[in-house]
DNA sequence: TATGCTAACGTCAGCGCTGACGTTGATTCG
DNA sequence: CGAATCAACGTCAGCGCTGACGTTAGCATA
């Protein structure tokens, strides 16, 4: 409010042209000569003109706003999305908004739909596991909101999507543990509604079996988010360790569960990693802070978000765009000393 | 785009009144009778009218957008802010946007100012430690942007602020450890530019000295963010433990450093928590996942964000509003069994 | 009964852009 | 050399609201 902020017409008046010409310049539209373009830009720079997003949105029925939709906006992997998305939005003059959809009850969906109607977005990045909630996707389609999904896999090519290869990650962990000499495995399996939970479990199991493991010595326990958050994975780990063919290595759905497995191991008096190797998934911030520090899989979340946001802030294209991103193993101490070099 | 979304005039036409009357109703302005208000609301509900935020922003020079500014948008305590802030924004029809200001170089500030000019906000929540960056605050004042600071302390009553009592938290930890019988203390001190770092250090030290500790047996090491993120606090902990009066308890600036202290303890072959007690600060997500799980201080971040956002989305008031929030000790195993009940 | 006052509405000009549609002068070509 | 073409501009009516300012009918009051 201090000094009124300059408008497009202010620029036009100074240059001595029509507002439309200025608009053509700042929007990079054709129909202006090079000389004029330079003159306009000079004045724009000089008085520090910035387009008014609200006016632009009102007149053009675009909003210059993109959203990130997640069922857990506080999780670490989400914050990596924010950083990547934020960079793109900043560079392209878009606003980034966050929206949480905790459950998937019809009421929550209706609520989201209402809010999306009231505050439309130019695009939405849908993070896993919401990305496989078809009721949600149908709603977005109905509202004709563009979206990019972050999903483990999309067999049917339903929409634009970015993915990190869960099968490759879980298989690599399996080969790593096998290479260290482990033959009896426990799997802390993620919830089934989380597609990645199924994929990682299957890939890990298939890989160790392919390497020659005895099916009777590869056991999984399903983890369902317990009431007591302080003991994530404790009971499930105890259950795995109580099995007749007690595993020497545990592969957990994520780093949180892996940390729980380590804690349970400590509590049972095991010496880690000698008595029990543990691998996580996701390379959470705390993976380096457990004891022993977790061997895990890094997912290129930042890069995926950047890609998704670049799509969403660019003109639509025909057809479906899908992009896979390579994962990367992060070796720490939770599997003990390596007996042989792990493959790349 | 499917079916054109209803406008204020659509509602007015159906009810048979002027658009202004509808506006009065949906904005809860005076000047409409009860009967009319009910008639309008009925139609609003029926056709699902939602005000167009862009139009409203353009006409009223408000933006219905509030921001959260942080130097580390990926930290766990920030995500707790998002959740609280998001709830308020959703309920009040505001958009929440995130902005990171990593360093505090003049260039970055200029950049932020440009962006704030281009995309004005109705208010900004400034998280610590940016909340004590006076260059930033001066800039916001100059732009006449309302803001609420999240800061440990504000002696001069410079602006609206919410704070959790760092002095109370650090003192309580000190009393807890003292009560468990500890007499020699190490402090992993936070960086000085982080006001909370100084406050927590001073409060802890003052408290144990007041309880009778020997000043020679209360030592601090300054932590500066190391290059190698994988070993946060390792070297500093080793330094503390190498001191002639080797501490039996370490108080860390935050949970991350505390986890590093635990890891270093393990690495040195100590039996935790018998040989070394550790307390953190902040109750990060992973505090329950370390071994032993961390005793720490919970800060009511969600509640603070809710308060701040309620202020920012309400009409301004005269004077400065400041609100303190109580902290809460979270007892876990990292200090061993309690010898006596800790105070409330 | 004339006057003033007020609650309950209405009117209308923008807010700062955009999109569709002019206009003009220079260039090209039959 | 006149008509057609086209790049380079200009004009203008909105987009859907809001804020400032009418208008009117009903009621209290002198």
Q: What would you say this structure looks like, in words?
A:
The structure is a homodimer of 344-residue chains. In chain A, the strands form three sheets. Chain A has a six-stranded parallel beta sheet with strand order 2-1-3-4-5-11, covered by helices on one side. Chain A has three domains: 8-51, lambda repressor-like DNA-binding domains (434 Repressor (Amino-terminal Domain), Orthogonal Bundle), CATH 1.10.260.40; 63-165 and 301-326, Response regulator (Rossmann fold); 166-299 and 330-335, Response regulator (Rossmann fold, 3-Layer(aba) Sandwich), CATH 3.40.50. The radius of gyration of chain A is 25 Å and the shape is elongated. The first copy, chain A, has twelve helices and twelve strands. In chain A, helix 1 packs across helix 3 and helix 5 (76-92) packs parallel to helix 12. In chain A, strand 8 (249-252), helix 11 and strand 9 (277-279) form a beta-alpha-beta unit. With 344 residues, chain A is α/β, with parallel strands linked by helices. The first copy, chain A, has helices spanning 8-15, 19-26, 34-47, 53-60, 76-92, 106-118, 134-143, 166-179, 195-211, 234-241, 255-267, 301-312, and strands at 65-70, 95-100, 123-126, 147-150, 161-164, 185-189, 218-222, 249-252, 277-279, 296-298, 322-325, 328-330. Helices cover 41% and strands 15% of the residues of chain A. The interface between A and B is large, with 60 and 59 residues. Chain A binds a DNA duplex (30 and 30 nucleotides) through helix 2 and helix 4.
């Amino acid at each position: 409010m201090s000094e009124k902020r300059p408008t497009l017409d202010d620029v036009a008046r100074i240059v001595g042209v029509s507002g439309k010409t200025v608009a053509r310049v700042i929007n990079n539209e054709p129909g202006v000569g090079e000389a004029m373009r330079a003159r306009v830009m000079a004045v724009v720079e000089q008085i520090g003109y910035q387009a008014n997003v609200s006016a632009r949105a009102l007149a053009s029925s675009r909003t210059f706003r993109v959203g990130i939709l997640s069922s857990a906006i506080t999780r670490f992997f989400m914050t990596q999305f924010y950083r990547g998305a934020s960079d793109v939005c900043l560079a392209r003059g878009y606003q980034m908004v966050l929206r949480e959809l905790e459950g998937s009850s019809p009421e929550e969906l209706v609520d989201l739909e209402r809010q999306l109607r009231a505050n439309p977005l130019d695009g939405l990045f849908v993070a896993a596991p919401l990305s496989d909630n078809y009721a949600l996707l149908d709603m977005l389609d109905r509202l004709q909101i563009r979206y990019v999904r972050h999903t483990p896999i999309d067999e049917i090519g339903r929409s634009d999507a970015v993915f990190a290869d869960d099968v490759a990650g879980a298989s690599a962990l399996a080969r790593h543990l096998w290479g260290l000499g482990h033959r009896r495995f426990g799997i802390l399996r993620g919830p089934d509604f989380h597609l990645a939970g199924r994929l990682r479990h299957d890939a890990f199991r298939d890989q160790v079996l392919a390497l020659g493991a005895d099916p009777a010595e590869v056991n999984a326990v399903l983890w369902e988010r317990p009431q007591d958050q302080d003991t994530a994975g404790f009971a499930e780990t105890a259950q795995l360790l109580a099995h007749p063919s007690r595993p020497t290595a545990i592969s957990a759905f994520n780093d949180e569960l892996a940390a729980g497995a380590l804690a349970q191991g400590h509590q049972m008096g095991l010496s880690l990693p000698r008595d029990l190797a543990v691998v996580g998934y996701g390379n959470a911030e705390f993976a380096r802070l457990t004891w022993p520090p977790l061997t895990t899989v890094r997912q290129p979340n930042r890069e995926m978000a950047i890609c998704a946001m670049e799509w969403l802030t660019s003109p639509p294209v025909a057809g479906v765009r899908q992009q896979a991103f390579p994962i990367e193993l992060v070796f720490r101490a939770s599997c003990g000393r390596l007996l042989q070099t792990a493959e790349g």
